[in-house]
Design a protein that fits this description.
Length: about 260
């Protein structure tokens, strides 16, 4: 029988740091090639990249060829959006702008079947391996990994309560949005933001929930992981491509 085991969720409970990459290129070829590159996880961005459901499906299929675990950042905490992504096989979600306990509970309800949630039934879908997993409805809820983004002052003040919600597996910090909300637009390195990040991490750890963060490059990722974060990005495919191409161009145009 085909397996629907969520590898990322299991690894999140371990001790090894999990390093990933943001994907904004909306490219199946990029997703497939990166899945062979050794990243523990690859995030398909549905919030700040033009990824629709069909685009996400193609990238999920491409990533499945490699060893990386896919994470999908949903555009918004909306049950209809969750339902469509669940049916194409998304198991690990990153939900933006979760600012309260009720919003965390709303996300959890959206990905669980009744009576514990409001997920609709689909008889034949990619999620249940096109009806080849006969006990899918009995095991699906346990394989969902729900990660909520803490990126506002309101969310930071309620991290313990949000992280303690049943069904929330981890919290994730978006430093840029957190900085903007706290009055330091464009300055995520501000001491006040760094103090807030440390506080969010400590609050999550106090209730036994792992925390992740969008790190600004490999050095920042190493620092974050050393401080106690369980998973971190090292960058994004789009910005990395642009920087690499501009660097090559500069070298080619250099005189002497």
């Amino acid at each position: 029988m085909p397996s629907i085991a969520n590898t990322f969720k299991r690894r999140l409970k371990g001790a090894d740091p999990l390093i990933g990459l943001w994907m904004q290129l909306v490219s199946n070829s990029a997703a497939e090639s990166l899945a062979y590159s050794g990243f523990d996880w690859l995030l398909i961005d549905g919030e700040h990249a033009p990824n629709e459901v069909q685009d996400v499906l193609g990238q999920l299929q491409a990533i499945a060829a490699g060893d990386s675990s896919p994470i999908v950042r949903i555009a918004w905490n909306d049950a209809v959006l969750f339902k469509r992504l669940l049916d194409i096989g998304v198991q690990t979600f990153l939900v933006p702008q979760v600012n309260s306990v009720e919003e965390a509970k709303k996300a959890v309800r959206a990905v669980r079947y009744p009576p514990n949630g409001v997920r609709g039934m689909a008889g034949c879908s990619r999620a249940n391996r096109f009806a080849h997993v006969p006990d899918y409805y009995k095991v699906a809820d346990a394989e969902i990994c729900m990660i909520v983004q803490i990126e506002t002052r309101a969310a930071a003040a309620q991290v313990r309560e949000i992280a303690s919600v049943e069904g929330i597996d981890a919290v994730f910090i978006g430093p840029a949005d957190l900085a903007a909300d706290m009055g330091h637009l464009g300055d995520p390195g501000h001491p006040e933001i760094q103090a807030a990040i440390a506080g969010i991490l400590a609050a999550a750890q106090s209730v036994g929930k792992p925390a992740g963060i969008f790190a600004f490059g490999p050095d920042d990722a190493r620092k974050r992981l050393a401080s106690g974060f369980r998973f971190a990005s090292v960058g994004a495919d789009l910005s990395t491509m642009i920087k690499a191409c501009e660097s090559m161009l500069a070298v080619a145009r250099a005189k002497g």
